[in-house]
Amino acid sequence: MKRLFYLLAFLPLPYACTYDETLSVCDVTVQLVYPEGSVDPYKGVRVELKDAAASVFVDSTDAHGLARFRVPPGIYEASSSTQLTDSTGDTWWRYNFNGVKSMIIISPDSTNQIRMNLMMSKKRIVH
Questions:
Q1: pTM above 0.85?
Q2: Residue 107 CB contacts under 8 Å (≥ 6 apart), including other chains
Q3: Is 123 helix (H, G, I), strand (E, B) or coil?
Q4: Helical H segments across the chain, by residue range
Q5: How far apart are CA 10 and CA 34, in angstroms?
Q6: Are 95 and 38 in contact (CB under 8 A)?
Q7: Residue 32 and residue 80: Cα distance in Å, rounded?
Q8: 3 three-state secondary structure
Q9: pLDDT digits (tens, 9 = 90+) for 59-85
Q10: Cα 56–chain centre separation
Q11: Hey, which residues does 106 pair with through a beta bridge?
């Protein structure tokens, strides 16, 4: 009887310690959309994806303004901020492009293609 008790007590132990360590990830694309008549998309703009646990994933855009990520499913916030200087002519201008998009649900069964509109501000540079 005592052996049967130990057998039943310790038999589930090896099965209780096993778990699956594979982490599923989703392909995500973020397309930056610049204001009409401002600039064309360009390479090297920083784009960030932040999840609910404050993990930050970073990528840069390609020449078409597209950033690509592989992230775990969850709820994310996408953001981007960049600055350009126009030094042609007598007056120099600094253009700031900023954008944030919140509450983005990333899941394996959705397309995970995000279009993020950027806002532009313009400031004159005085020498």
A1: no
A2: 26, 73
A3: strand
A4: 2-10, 13-16
A5: 63
A6: yes
A7: 8
A8: helix
A9: 999 999 999 999 999 999 999 999 988
A10: 7
A11: 74
Distances (CA, A) of 26 to 4, 22, 53, 63, 111: 47, 13, 17, 23, 9
pLDDT tens readout for residues 15-38: 555 556 677 899 999 999 999 988
Q: What tokens does 107 get?
A: 């899941």
Q: Which two tokens stand for residue 24?
A: 């599923």
User: In the numeric block, which tokens belong to residue 77?
Assistant: 């916030």
Asked if 111 and 26 count as a contact pair (C-beta separation under 8 A), the reply is no
The whole-angstrom separation of Cα 108 and Cα 91 is 49
Smallest CA-to-CA distance from 50 within 98, 120, 106 is with 106
